[in-house]
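Question thread 4412

I'm putting together a teaching handout and wanted feedback from people who do this every day. The idea is simple: show students a protein as raw sequence, then show them the structure tokens that encode its fold, then repeat with a second protein so they can compare. Below is the first pair exactly as I plan to print it.
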Amino acid sequence: MNSISVVVVYRNREIQRIIHFLESLNNQTYKNFELIFLDYGSDISISENVQKNITLYPFVTYYYHDSRGQEWNRSKAINIAI
């Protein structure tokens, strides 16, 4: 069991930003954590690209919530992820 769970929510961000973030976590010396990564309705092309890159990081659990057409709601996205 992991001692720390990190929850990240996002929508339609550039893939390089996500990769840098994941690499930063991957390079941590403390490894007893998990990352819950919720995509809150990104465009399909972006979410497919993120899913493909996330498979390289075993500590990440990826979820997609289809909220396309709705406004960004960070609180709701965090609640869904939790």
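The second pair follows. I'd like the answer to focus on this one:
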Amino acid sequence: AHRLRLISGKGKLTPFFPLASESLEGLTDETVSYLDQFIYRFTKLQDAMGTRLFPALVCMITGSDAPRPFLDILNQLEKVGIISSSETWQTLRVLRNNFAHEYPGSSEQCVATLNMLFVEWHQLEAMFLSARVYYEEKLLPLLASQ
């Protein structure tokens, strides 16, 4: 659901990107609500992937449910080809965290982060889709044969 809302939000926001500080301040309330939805859904999708999907996949891949550091989870996913690089995940995480630490008067930082997120969000989608394909093609057949 989060991915589909991201796609919908991106479609509605495309005419406004790339943003400039002046254009950010001039957005209508409706457009700001689409922007808020885009940021919220990106955050929720990344959270769900990081807290539930990725650990569950690694548990299935390794056969161990022992707790492990998240960097180990990312490295395992990179090793089997589910994600292209753990650095990409971490870069997307930094972009997302920039919104949590916005300060009044930092519209240039906000605009730069929004522009980067708008361009790079597809990498999060690619990781999600890759995880789904890996599960469906590699793990689900193993579960069915047990």
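Top answer:
Good format. For the second protein you could add a caption like this: Helices lie at 2-13, 21-25, 29-62, 70-79, 86-100, 107-144. Residues 102 and 109 are 8 Å apart (CA to CA).
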